[in-house]
Write a structure and sequence with these properties.
The protein has 650 residues and is α+β, with helices and mostly antiparallel strands. The protein has three domains: 170 residues, Arp2/3 complex 21 kDa subunit ARPC3 (Orthogonal Bundle); 151 residues, PAS domain (Beta-Lactamase, 2-Layer Sandwich), CATH 3.30.450.20; 148 residues, Reverse transcriptase/Diguanylate cyclase domain (Alpha-Beta Plaits, 2-Layer Sandwich). The chain contains 20 helices and ten strands. The strands form two sheets. It has a six-stranded antiparallel sheet with strand order 3-2-1-6-5-4. Strands 8-9-7-10 form a four-stranded antiparallel sheet, with helices on both faces. It is elongated, with a radius of gyration of 50 Å. It starts with a helix and ends with a helix. About 1% of the residues have low confidence.
């Protein structure tokens, strides 16, 4: 079944919602009938398709005939989530289980509908609690009928839908071939990593959606608030301008001096009362002259809350006015002031009254209530939250479906094939290649490139695997031979320790370390005594045995890996790193073992060991090469040999 046909079914669910809504509008029914398509598509295809149908239903209703319908999109979206959740658990498989779904969905959607409607239509929800309770039962009854009809209709449509359509709808949006049941089970539950790509991607998607939606909501709120305040300022400015036009600047002195007895005072006061009473939110209107002494009353209108001050009376400037006193005394305009104190949440606008010479005689001020703005702001926030909830869930659901189908599923499928690839035999390898080919991933991006690269690499690898296996035995044989040849080239045939060739290579390596300033080593020169006497007296075979015994003792004390035979009866020991500090101890131990053997009368001459030993340690900054260290060790050995000759009594 092609994706175009599936999209037609999706559009059909949307039309089913709109048709039901139009029927209720036409016959003025107390139900909505706009969720049948949402329930059907959500039960058929899962979360994302159902949420999309629910969201676009309210969007189209808002565009076509009722803008406020968009605020209820979160209810339709919730219906989709609710349905998809229970459909995945088999509640739409038989009619009996519908008895569980209908009451719970009725209660939740009925409550949400009534809450949103009440919040949108009331500026103070707490004052309408009684009304909410009165209409709740009626609304639940209507919702019970509405949701029962919608769920039953969706259930019937599901029963009429062929199985292959249901299967294909569940795979809607996937960019690869359908998986086997076993593979689908494993891939959908990949949990062998501590932090999966799904978790990271969905977390980023959620945070991005929250950030974008929150930013838009915050910007909308700030723009609304600024616009509402500006509108309020324009209204107050108009009132103050009219009041200024009624003030005669040349009579201000008389108004202050004589008060209500002054000519024209009462007439002007009546006009100011008329201006104040023209707006319900105008709380206070007064006229002040400002001087260094304070605020001198010219006009102050009585209100129900505050008794007016008398003309000429000097009152103390309020705290909000003190930062502007210098400008007011000088007769300069000041910006609008917004305060929230014991007089209420007010916007105050001061406008100067100038005489013909441009001199400021007084200021007309109006205190305008900002309380209605708070109510408008609360309603606006509620509308934003209603839109935010629906839009956020819609964006997240679509994003999640995209991530799941275009990233997570392909990557996990590739990982499954790679992890379970078997190299045991030709048949298993061919089946694995077929499994990878059958994925047919077509995301059109880097993941598809990765898939094709894996497939190509695997095919090439298997193509050459046979040749590699054939060559494996030959390579192994060659390695054995090379190793043997290397052993022969670097090992002394008589004693089994490293020979002079190996010694020369090690000296070259030490010279490089000296040049790099990283050398730390010492050399021990061991020269075997009496070899000629043993050869002459007992023959070369026992002479070889004598030499082997000397080598065996040297290896036992200094370690065979550090011993080199560089001549007939000459051995060199090279110690590096931490062993350098123990070199004197090793030499002393060697001499002690040698003396022990020499003093053993039960041993034949060739079973004993006699050798001169010389030790030299590398001196950084002094020795230019390893050969210099060797020469010092040789000199020490020679001195030791002379001392041994001098001490001999035989």
């Amino acid at each position: 079944m092609s994706d175009s046909k599936l999209i037609l079914i999706f559009i059909g669910g949307l039309i089913l919602n709109l048709f039901g809504s139009m029927v209720t509008e036409a016959f003025d029914l107390p139900v909505y009938m706009d969720t049948s398509g949402t329930i059907f598509i959500a039960a058929l295809g899962g979360y994302a398709p159902g949420i999309a149908v629910g969201f676009f239903t309210n969007l189209l209703k808002a565009v076509l005939y009722e803008p406020t319908e968009m605020y209820f999109c979160s209810v339709n979206v919730f219906v989709a989530i609710f349905t998809a959740f229970f459909a995945r658990r088999g509640f739409f498989d038989n009619a009996g289980k519908l008895l569980i779904i209908v009451p719970s969905l009725t209660f939740v959607t009925g409550t949400l509908d009534l809450l949103i409607a009440d919040f949108l239509n009331s500026t103070n929800f707490l004052s309408s609690v009684n009304e909410f309770e009165a209409t709740f039962a009626e609304n639940i009854f209507n919702e019970a009928f509405d949701k029962s009809f919608s769920i039953v209709l969706a259930f019937v449509l599901l029963k009429l839908t062929p199985a292959h359509v249901k299967k294909r709808f569940h795979e809607l949006g996937q960019r690869q071939a359908p998986l086997s049941d076993e593979m689908k089970r494993v891939v959908s539950k990949e949990s062998y990593l501590s932090a999966s790509l799904r978790t990271k991607t969905l977390a980023i998607l959620m945070l991005s959606s929250l950030f974008a939606s929150s930013s838009i909501a915050l910007i909308s709120y700030l723009l609304f608030q600024d616009s509402a305040v500006d509108e309020r300022i324009k209204t107050v400015d108009g009132m103050v301008t009219v009041a200024v036009s009624e003030i005669n600047p040349y009579r201000i002195d008389n108004y202050i001096k004589l008060g209500r007895a002054a000519e024209g005072y009462k007439e002007t006061e009546e006009k100011l009362y008329a201006i104040k009473n023209s707006a319900v939110d105008a709380k206070y209107l007064y006229v002040y002259r400002f001087s260094e002494r304070g605020c001198q009353v010219v006009f102050d209108l009585n209100t129900a809350m505050v008794e007016a001050d008398k003309p000429g009376q000097i009152v103390e400037a309020e705290e909000s006015l003190k930062p502007y006193m210098e400008d007011l005394v000088a007769g300069r305009p000041i910006p609008p002031i917004i305060t929230d104190d014991e007089y209420g949440y007010l916007l105050t606008l001061y406008k100067p009254v100038y005489d013909g010479s441009g001199r400021c005689q007084c200021y007309v001020a109006v205190d305008f209530s900002m309380e209605p703005l708070l109510e408008y702001t609360h309603i606006f926030i509620i509308k934003l939250l209603a839109l935010f909830a629906g839009c956020f869930i819609f964006i997240f659901a679509i994003g999640r479906a995209f991530v799941e189908n275009n990233i997570i599923l392909p990557v996990n499928s590739i990982a499954y094939c790679a992890r379970n690839f078997s190299y045991d035999n030709t048949t298993a390898r061919e089946e694995n290649i077929k499994l990878i080919k059958d994925l047919k991933i077509k995301t059109g991006d880097e993941i598809e490139n990765l898939y094709r690269a894996l497939l190509r690499t695997t095919e090439n690898f298997l193509r050459y695997l046979t040749h590699l296996q054939r060559a494996k035995t030959r390579v192994a044989d060659m390695q054995v031979k090379v190793f043997a040849m290397d052993e022969i080239a670097h090992k002394d045939s008589l004693t089994g320790v490293k020979n002079k060739t190996a010694y020369s290579e090690e000296v070259a390596a030490l010279d490089k370390k000296i040049s790099a300033g990283a050398a730390e080593f010492c050399m021990v020169m061991v020269d075997v005594n009496y070899l000629k006497r043993v050869n002459d007296t007992y023959g070369h075979e026992l002479g070889n045995t004598y030499l082997q015994n000397a080598c065996r003792l040297t290896c036992a004390v200094f370690g065979a890996e550090n011993v080199y035979r560089i001549g007939g009866d000459e051995f060199v020991v090279i110690l590096e790193g931490e062993k350098v500090s123990l070199s004197k101890y090793f030499v002393a131990q060697f001499k002690s073992e040698m003396e022990h053997k020499l003093s053993n009368e039960s041993l034949a001459l060739w079973e004993k060991v006699s050798a001169a030993v010389g030790l030299a340690t590398y001196r950084a900054g002094v020795d230019k090469s390893a050969d210099e260290v060797f020469k010092r060790a040789d000199e020490q050995m020679y001195a030791n040999k002379l001392a041994m000759k001098a001490a001999r009594t035989d």
